Queue: 4 jobs
Job 1
Amino acid sequence: MQDRLEKQRTYALIGHGGTGKTSLAELMLVASGALSRQGKIEEGTTALDYEPEEIKRRGSIQPGFAHFTWKGADHFLVDTPGDTNFIGDLPYLLTAVDGVVLVVDALDGVKPLTKKIWGEARKLNLPALVFVNKMDRERADFAMAMGGLSSVLGVRAVPLFLPIGSEADFRGVVDVLGDSAFFFGQDGTLSPGPVPAEMQDAVQAAREVAVENIAETSEELMERYLDAGELSAEDLEAGLRQGVQDQSLVPVVPGAALAAKGGSLLLDAIVRFLPAPLARAPWQGKDGATRASSPDEPLAAFVCKTLSDPFTGQLSILRVLSGVLTPDMQVMNATKEDKEKIGGLLFLEGKKQVPCKEPVGPGAIVAVAKLKNTSTGDTLCAEKAPFVLVPPKLTPPIISYALAAQEKGDEDKVFAAVQKLLDEDICLHLERNEDTGDMLLSGMGQLHIELAVEKAKRRYKANILLQTPKIPYRETIKGKAQVQGRHKKQSGGRGQFGDCWIRMEPLPRGAGYEFVDEVVGGAIPRNYIPAVDKGIQEAAARGFLAGYPVIDFKVTLYDGSYHSVDSSEMAFKIAGSLAFKKAMEQCSPVLLEPVMLVSVFIPDEYMGDIIGDLSSRRGRVLGSDSSGGVTEVRAHVPMAEMMQYAQTLRSMTGGQGTFTMEFDHYEECPPQIAEAVIAESKRPEA
């Protein structure tokens, strides 16, 4: 197994949407012989995009997994989505691989989302290659794409090949370090040939820069280079491999996936430069534990994704971290401290499942069906050697919608259907807002939530309505008051009597609620004082202006009276409630709105438009930072103004902008907006 693992490669294709990652994966599968013909996204015939929603929108919405062999070695490939709506679980997928291939579009080069996705790979210290795709398209510009790698991503890119021609004339490549050329046949096969005379100077210049970059990977190589003025082919290979492993260098391969050009060149580069699973640093577990990536260690496997299959049910996608995983194995879910029985192991080729009857070691990505209590992010391990991998942090959801059943009485069906989707997609969150009563589905964008609802309807026949959620406003006070709350009811027999005097005053924003007992001399018996407090809190929760909870105020109970027979906890609770309502009338109540901290990432040229748009949404811009052509704008913006922002940003930036937002604080509502909210709250009563 050791020799087999030395040759094994486990990697992900990453990049922003539309760069051709799935087409490239398709080309690699055809080149390896795993597929007989190359499918096309436009025709809905690719192996890795098979969900109806993916075929309909012609783009990946979930990762695709594939296992194949190339020149006798195992390859495990993960094709990741590139749309901002579907990259929320990217850190989990990248945890499951040992390297990445960044796919860059030769037409548009590096985009803001490319930088974000690249940053996720760099956080996990993953070695990388770059594939510059679509070299056969109109406007293809290899030099522009290379420039973006250095200026935007800050990488030292080493072109392994220079393209011969471009656009419709893209017909071959020159091996920069080998000083030889290859020309593409009709089916993408390679034929050696002479380096075009007009490219000699460009190739020589590229080689000199590449050799210098490789020489800088170690002092030993630098000394040899300075002494001899050149490095041997073996030194260049070893130095470049070391530069990739320590992430100081990134080799680049040009190609055209749909035209079947460059697939074998990329596969060879992956074998030459990306690491085997045995080369990984030890995995970091909870409480400081570590686990080496070795078949001799006890078993540990990370669940990087959960998929739903119409025939086999729930599929847990495992990356073996250490040890050996065999079919029909008893394991421990160390995350949940629960036993699981592994049934058969499956290799995936998109939706095709191939039974795996042999043990698999570190680096293998396999699917297991019908685990009873295992979900994405869990660690499975040997029962006698527990280990829990520390998973990376995920980006919190940025947008929420209220769910409602299309037909009355179907609420439980809707909830059950969405709950099943949550098992599959960890970036979806379902919760009930206690303040508004809404059932909120939160996700990474409007499209993310819409497609989740579409999937629930298709799979589970749940007809769901999406509604803009209610804004969780709050109420507070600006003034002070001193009032009496008196409840007296006598209608024969035992009556009700409660009497209290309170002072109410505002507290600083975020201070919450404070109750102070200053009753002396037994004016109110001690056992009735908590009832006054409870009555005030319950009344505050129901609101005063528009039915929203009242926050940030202090109540001091300082006097009152009682009746030895008619007083009770209920009577004093009602008295506290009455006192609160009286005090609110005199304390200048105001409506508060939630304000979000928003970070928007856009190309530099859109900064002025974005700042203007945020200002028009009553936002306060806090600042901006620009790096490598990408600007981050930070602002405080009321939540009410951000409910449809995803669509606006996509429209303004042609899909290049992304944003995150999180609750920051509450602020007083402008009078005209407060009046509209209060009027709306009274409408149902009317």
Job 2
Amino acid sequence: MINAQRKNKKKILALAIGSVISATSYSEASSLVNVKPSQMVQGGNGLIQTPTARMRDEGGMAINYTDNGEYRFWSVNIQLFEWMEATARYTDVRTRLYSQSESFSGDQTLKDKGLDVKFRLWEESYYLPDISVGFRDFGGTGFFESEYINASKSVGPFDFHLGLGWGYLGTHDDFTSPFCEIKDSFCERPSGFSGRGGKVDYDQFFKGPMAVFGGIEYQTPWEPLTLKLEYEGNNYVNDRAGELQQDSRWNIGAVYRYKDIDLSLNYQRGNTIGFGLTYRFNMHTASQAKFDEEPRDLMRRRAPSSVEEVNKSRLYNDLYRDGGFVLHDANLEEDKAIFYGTQTKYRNQDEAIERIGRVAASELPDSAETYHIVDNRGGRPLVDTQIDAEAFIAAARYESVESDIKQTYHRTSPSKEVIDAYDPENTNGFFYSTDFFWVQTFGNPEEFYLYQTGLLLNGGYAFNSKFSVMGSARVTVLDNFDKFNFLVDAEEVVLPRVRTRVREYVNNDVWIDTGFAHYKDNISENVFGQAYAGYLETMFAGIGGEILYRPVDSNLAYGIDLNYVKQRDPSNQLRLEDYDAITGHVSVYYKPEFLEGTQLSVSAGQFLAKDKGVNIDFAKRFDSGIIVGAFAAFTDVSAEDYGEGSFTKGFYISIPTDLFLLKPSKGRGFIPWIPIGRDGGQMLTRPTRLIDMTEVRSPFYD
């Protein structure tokens, strides 16, 4: 009987594969994609409930909300590379409560986090389709855990999709998985999830029932409107919202596009109406129009005859006004000029150097053969951009059709001669600044969205260019953190509570985050060092140091830090508690050439809870300057001992402020998302990091 069923399912599988082949070799009238991909209900490029093989342009981002009967979904979909998309999702289950304890979570409905990834295996050509493999809700509690392989082929205004799904997408069990024929363990799919949630359950991939899914998209003659027809592989008997009635496997829908907004409406399962809203933009092409002066014109250049005739006051003021360069010191000689300062205005290094070079060229005599633009950070010269004056002026005046200003200068470490000549007038004195902070957290049991905002007051005193004392205080202006029903959870833990007590600290309206002494210096041309002692972060005080090796414009940097810390008392800002730890890491920072615009940071050592392991951070930078990244820490702490989430992980996005301003700016906003924060794999938030202080030597964030 079982063999007969398998034979029938094999026939169905053969028909499904045949359908894919016929769709992919349709006719010579086949064309490239004419239907623009849109978001499915749960986020990600797809039809209604099922994914497609389609990818959008690299850098594409979609923020999505859908209302779907028993479920509501909030999702963010990012096209990290042209061959990879990732989706982060929150699911609200209307038919379930967050917990059975009213005093704990009230009447808040159940929330769940999910992550999806999809990889393109083959890009569509004239005859062959897009082919992708995807992993849906692959970590955590696996509400919708699935794996799938699908194909998409465009034919005129139609886009055809056909896929094979396992897990949630395969519960209709249309045919026996071919993997089951190879090994019996693939015939059944393990239930539940490993650890305490948050782990990737590799042992479940491509196991259990298998079903076919797919559909058609039609780009109507009216450009804003796309119609969808879908055939599902899920039977809805194992949903977290309860067993849902499915009167039909066919779903229909429509998407209306208005500028960067998608409005969707659909009819699912033969009994459910859903709708959604999507906002789309591209992180490569995102920009903001600027009101700024044009770079100085050198066509009518009238240079002074000697350095004595240089109008220094005008030159120094113009370096800031036209080039965004705050001057700290300058040495003008007949054959060269050295300008020491900090670029505060332009994120683009080439734009900044061209503007500064044009100012220098218009104000300095022809005898000056070289302009040195020495970029300082923390009072220390870090990069010397040497401009060949004659070649620069010729390129700026377009004296050749092949003129390229970028070829007229190069970046290098400041020489001993350049460093010794640096003699700023003011290396000591008070400094201060005020910043705005915004802290937010999603998916909390007491309230889905909690926030805190206020002012961050920074200040200190510099004794010289190497030694200073500084600190910061956080003043809360507005928050809803008073909704916390507990400050420390009642869970029995194995690890010291180095982070799960964070609510005790953030509940203080005024808190001294840092207050420490700091010493920094250049150990050699490419080696930098620092030492610090005091209140190092919100929760810990101590003493530590760091050494970093970082050549100019190198794709590799290496560092080591070592710290002794004690936990601060949340009820008394100046007092310390008994818990202490030695924590530190050996770190490697790498920008791989084969993945343009990416940075990989790996730090191995001992964490705050004295667990040992490695933290891996991967970041992707887009042309607009927006950076998205993810990190995870893997230590010798088991998933059971770690607690909910199984291991530390998180995501972040860093957005340049000048995307919102009409004037050039170098500021950034940082938005983190940590699904579950426990005590394992937690790093000390050091008040200064050499990799940040030396960013100008090999820019990624700048």
Job 3
Amino acid sequence: MVVLRTMFHDSQIAEKVQLGRDKMSYMMLFGIAPYYKSELDKTLHNTNCIVVGFDESLNKTTKKQQMDLNVRFWDEEKKEVVTRYMTSMFLGRSRATDLHAAFKEGLGNIPLNKLLQVSMDGPNVNWSFLRELKMDFEHGEERLLDLGSCGLHILHGAFKEGVRCSGWNVTKYLRGIYHIFKDVPARRALFTSYSGSAVYPLKFCAHRWLENINVAQRAVEITPHIRKFVEGVQNDKIEPKSDSYVDVVECLKDPLLLAKLTFFKSVAAEVEPFLREFQTDNPMVPFLYNNLSQMARSILGRFMQIDQLKNITQVTIEEINEAKNHLPMKEIVLGFETRKVLKNSSKLTQKQILQFRLECKGFLKALILKLMKRSPLTYPVTKAASSLDPSVIDSDQKLAGKRFEKLLTILMDFGRISGASADLALKQYLKLVGSNKSNKFAYYDRKNERLDHFWKGLLSGDEFMELFTIVKMICCLSHGNANLERGFSINAECLFENMREESVVAKRQIYDAVFHAGEIASIQISNQLIQRVRNSHSLYIEDKERRKKEDLASNASKMMKRQREAEAKSLEIKRSKILENAQKEAESLQEKIALLKSTVL
């Protein structure tokens, strides 16, 4: 209170403000957060279709899996696709049945038929969850559209698989050179002394493999200095006693180490632009097909014959594995930097170079096979949605028309549009691409303009109503889980010791509302919000009373349980004593019987 008076000495309102220890907490938990949650629920109930994404991460405060749910939909107020935080569910276990129950609970009262797509990453448990969820749609007309799992995760996993199948020790080396000098000033000083360099290794990221381009580049640059460091400590007999040092020494014995590092960097640079561009909440699904096709074609072109790459979606796994479709070993595309390293390595034999090229081919083949297995390229809707890519329309209107017709067929088959709406949408699409507006497709720049803004500008008015409905639906589709991944960082900033689960959710909901508004100054203070805040104290008191009653009931139940356990234990002891006494009496009687029998004889 004194602080507020000091800060706002000219405000009569601030002078009257009183903040108790828990006031801000209950205002958020029972006033502000429920208001914004109810506003989001109202918006979602007035929306025709939504896309829900989910991901789980360990909450270190509650010691449970926190399952965050985000929702994508067309915001009529902003006239664009938005991604909003819905809620979080806290799970003890993460089986498919647990995810399914938590997901449906998180949706609340939102009808399942509004759910157009589920966005997720690719663990097997998520695919099992998706199969269970699809069963909920069996008796309805609507079905879930499927674009596979997050394309960003697939790429990272595919690259990791390529490195694994190559059998190289590149990752061991990148980790080792970083950990040798991490938090050890004495070794850093020795490194500078022996090598004359003050440039140190960068940290290798085990979860985002394709973000290690700079790490690999730094390793290439300082490997000669690492060799000098190792030679120096060996000569002076002061070698570090660590596993990282042992790994680095082992890796340095590999004459192809630099060639492997440069190839690693070359392949990562091949796919990194896709990740950089698609880590956004903007509508990107119509661009997926062309971008993934070009990237896959580029990777395949490094080890396969060109005549096999006419249509990337028609290249089968069998054709990729067929050796006759591969380039000769000497024609495998290694990259200029890798070729330079091999050229400058005079000690390498032809056998070693041939084996290296074979391993490079194995790297590329494993990467592309993993990518093709669950890539969005394998789903028909990905190719059909490219009909809304302005570059496709500009380059070939006939091809774009065929793909749009396929898109309408898919949406109709999945119960998302009627046949009459599909007919109208197709007529409007063909009319648009053949009109004088079609020259705008040639000048579209997706780096500077969102796709939903572009189409909204073209389809203003009732003339293209059905077509605009299709556009909004496809723009809502999710291309990845980047938004959810960013949410984990926000979760970490929200947490503090002994924080309740409800408080985590409330903070996220308020943060999301402010972020959606743009800034604090843009928040509209409505009468409903004021009333919610006014009522928050009474709700807080009610919650405290409820918790007290629950605690009393719980304590009474525990007390009753302890009493019953104590009584049962007492009775068990009594029973044991009775049995023991009975046994003694039985033995005594048996002795008397035996004595009587012996006397008779």
Job 4
Amino acid sequence: MTTTPRARRAARTAVTTSTVVALALAGVVLPTVSLPVPKAHAVAPDVEDVLVRGIDPDARQEKGALDDAVGHEHDAAAETAGDTAAVEGAETLSDVPAPEPDEGALAALSERTTTQDFMVAGVTWDEASTATVTEVAVRVRESGTWSEWQSLGIDDTDVAGGRAGTEPLVTAGADGVQARVRTDSGVPPTGLKVDVVDPGTSRADASVGQESAPAASADAGTGTEIRPKIVSRSGWGADESLSGRWPELSGKLKAIYIHHTAGTNSYKESQSAALVRGVYAYHTKSRGWPDIGYQFLVDKFGNIFEGRKKSRWDNPVGAQAGGYNTGTIGISAMGSFDTAQPSSALVTALARVVAWKSYTYGINPRGTVVLPTGGSTGSGTRAKPGTDVRVPTVLMHRTTNLTACPGQYLAAKMGTIRAGADSRRDAAIKKYGSIVPKVKAPTRVDPTSNQVPVQWNGRSTYRWKPVSGAVSYQVLQRYAKWNEGMPYTYYWREVKLTSATSITLSQSTGQSRELAVRAVDSDHRRGPLTSLARTNRAVSPSSWKRSSGWKKVTSSSYFGDYAYRTTTKGAYVQLPGAKQVRRVVIRGATSPSDGRLQVRVGGKAIETLDFGRASDGDRIFTVWVPRTSGTVTLKTLDSGKPVRISKIAVARW
């Protein structure tokens, strides 16, 4: 007979209990001992898949099969009203026409299925599916009773190799599930399934430990003085073997999202850590993400849990609001607040996290901010991609996305959360003063002419001077291909955390990159960023668009041992669709008999270069451009006079 992990754990408990009772009945007196508080340990979750294959005919006939779901995105038609302010220079979401509700057609309805015991559930499907999912709802069996349909927000966060799916649903304990899916065409997405997660148990769940902030500074604020107590990842039993590298970081924090999980509000405090483990397992094992999507989670008892790795001392990009994940963080309240009021402990905990981050990053919790709308597909943004919208600095998920999250009753507490955060932030400013980093910005060692503005070699070493008080250095980068838009400075990718004062890196051809570093002290606090280099690699000749008349020639006298040569007047090389061009850098051979080359960007002539130099040589020509985007064209002006080009780089800086 096959038993579930939960049944096996129950059996082990029963054996232990019966042994103690037997000893007592036999007259054996056991000594009284003071047991230490158990330590948390990593817990491996158990995930079960329930395949959903179209519409089950029997389930379709059941009473309530098509009842409205609690928390449907269109239950909150006026979710942005009163939550934005008209500010010149940015479109407010209250002025953005909301998309018409698209209920879609019923595409899948599973039978009521008995499963393993679980505490978290979610619905996923193939990322490559062509079906557009418009609604997902589930109901679960708890203590023998089936719940109402619960709408799950569709979260199509784009992670390479991941699966499309919904936000998670939490339960205090269930053993059955049913799913309902609507799509625009009535055709279900491929690979449709429900994942139910048994997060396992830990002896430490009943006494989850919270980590306090470092001691306050006597002379100036550091940002950690009002950091609330937080249950670390090890404290809630994260199995780090499930996590991978998700290196994106927000260099600047601009706004804070209030989120919620769907599902129950009846969980016990001793179940909170398990619920976090369940969400973590759903995001990593079911969705295929490298980590949990939220930076922080808060339970109804006021416990605050660290979500994404390093969220206690950095701003890792999460998956809290598709289209707006960069430059923001998300705090997920554990529970469903469409049907129940949030506890005062939960509201206070939310305000404490918001106050801490607001003080650290200079955010006004009662203010507004402009956020650019990203282009992630399926994220249900109210504004079109590329639109700048002005929103509150502390906002709800539903302010920018088509969802009812965080529920009507938690939405009603947003004013209380903002006010509580603002008063705590003001008190911190008065008591500790303005933020002063504990470690200074590193001083860079200036790069050489072979490193900037073009890194001519594929691999290069960049250096900085040591910083007093630093125990390590965080190296960051932002990059893009020559024909892509360069990310803003509030988006970075972590390269490495190192104790050295140099780093050696490769750089891809055609890539523009800014490399930066900041010092880190013994309490993990980051200092200010120092830009080490803004550099570019030459575009590969395979991306050049060449007219007839060019021929590849080889010689050890050419840079890279080759060049493209022509003697034809009007012969051209083009780089179509170059973005944010500031300089065009050309490297080629010259001699007294060589010809001229005209440089054009976006159809406008910028400069004419003369390759006919008094002596032969390998030359670097730099053409400054008024920052623009468009096709870069190099065109010869002379007949019978050779022009030889080895490298072309499009420089952003």
